[in-house]
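Build the 3D complex.
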Amino acid sequence: MKNIFSNPEKSIAAKLIIATGILIVVVSFIFWYATLKKQEKDIMSIATSYGESFVKFTKRSINHSLLTHNPDETQQVLENLGTPEGVQKVTIYNHEGKVIYSSNAANIGTAVDTASVACRSCHTDPAKSAALLPAAVMWSVQKEKGATSLKIVSQISNEPACYSASCHVHSSEQSIVGFVEADLSLALLDEALFKQGLALTAYVAVFVLAVSLFLGIINYKIVTHPVHELSVGMEHAASGDLDYSVDIKSVDEIGVLASTFNHMIKDLKAAREQRERWTQTLEEEVAKKTEEIKKTQAGLIQTEKLASLGRMAAGVAHEINNPLTGVVTFAHLMKKRFPPDSIDSEDLDVIIEQAERCAKIIKNLLTFARATPSEKGQIDINNVLSRTIHLVRNQEKFHNIKFNIDLAEKSFITLGEGSQFQQICLNMFLNAADAMNLRGTISVATREVEEDGKPFVEIEYTDTGSGIKEEDLPKLFEPFFTTKPVDKGTGLGLSVSHGIVKHLGGSIRVDSTVGKGTSFFVRLPLLLRKA
Amino acid sequence: MNKILVIDDEAIVRTSSKRTLVPEGYDVKLAESGKSGIEILEKESFDLILLDLKMPDMDGIEVLKVIMERWPGTKVIIVTGYSTVDTAVQALRLGAFNHIEKPFTPDSLLAAVREVFEQSQGTGNAD
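Done.
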């Protein structure tokens, strides 16, 4: 309510209040003015009527003294008539305007003002007495400073009693013998009128104020306040606060608007929440997919890297087979020239042996590069594991290593080549032994797991060795990658194992903590036995 | 005397084969490419051909196809590296008699060669 008039062109209520205010003021003013004028007119009419009565009374009072031509009595009566409050003066003058009698004796003998109503009420011009006005007005009001006075003039007609009177002052030709003029003060009436006007003004002012106030309050209650509430609500909504609701309980248009607005905000909120949920789900989905893509990409890069390395290794290995053939053949040919037990024969055996070792390495390399179309048979994982552990335990390298075996009682059958699987186990144990500096514990466990709804056997190899540095993890399955001294490792063990496991449809996963140890998890698909 | 043609782009393999087979009484001729091998075959006939699979210009499979088409019944032993086992299988399907892997030892080569002639003698197909 306070600020609606500070900027009225922006407020409906201010415009309404100003418009109705102006209307009320204008209407009230017209009413006030009309009432005042009517009162004045009525009062004046009453005043003239009383004035005329007074003049009649005067005429009657002096009738006798005039007929009897008793000027002193006439003068006395007039003086008496001039005494009451409100009567200023009573005068009698002849048709020529000469004052004969007056309540104020000082006026006797003076001439009447020809411009006054005394002459002008009948004559347009007193000099040309023949021109008479069609309707004579016998009274006039004089407004002077401080008081208003009413001048009433009445002619004294020449009655038979007059011209037949014994005094013979008037002849019978005269139609008018003189005039009675009364000057009456309207001060009291003025005062009454003024008081009434004042009261009326006060009433009208109070009425205007009351109506304006009432309209203002109604306006405020019905329009300004709800509109303000709505606009606050809209500001809240615009700034994003959708918890705000407009508290308007009326059932008129604004109430309907408010309830529609509340409904809209509720819908908006629901939509926003839905959108937020969608956004969040979408973000989660995107993050998940991104992670999956990253993993797939990393896997693809790794696979591609391994594949290209494999191709290169295969090419190199294949070329080496040719010179090796020469080495083997000529070593054999030479050997035939020496007696079987000679030193030379034994030396040549070393050459043959080493060349064959080369051939074996190449074969391993090619296993990694290209899956061997081996004869697949059923392998009992636990069985092969037990045999391999038995084999390595008796080796000198494993004398200070404790084996912690936890094989599942169930037998896990997978399709593959037993010797290849044994090769994987051997690689794992040899790597573990090297990682632990030939001292520590190797834990072996088997368990059944499920991957994409298919049963797999998981073989866990855990050592208490030095662990694998994080930067080495991505290179772990690359051929020729080794952390062992140059003469100790070829860097093929894990890459070959990886190749075999991949070929069998499995996977290898590594968990390692530097200083604590490493766990390899080999997963191979289980053979689904038909019931 | 059984005649053997060795087709291999690698000189050391040709030499190794010749040095292994000649002392055992085989008549061995050498060709350093598929093309020159076919040229030799056009002039004279052989009882056995040792054919390398991986060669530049014309590879072993192409040579084998030509041999099987023009001189059907010729015994061919494919000499292959480990990585070309698939191709070796393909070669056997195309009509090759056997295959041996590189690097081979004199004993394994002789064993494979002898197997061919023992069988030919058994069937009385030698000429």
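Chain A has ten helices and twelve strands.
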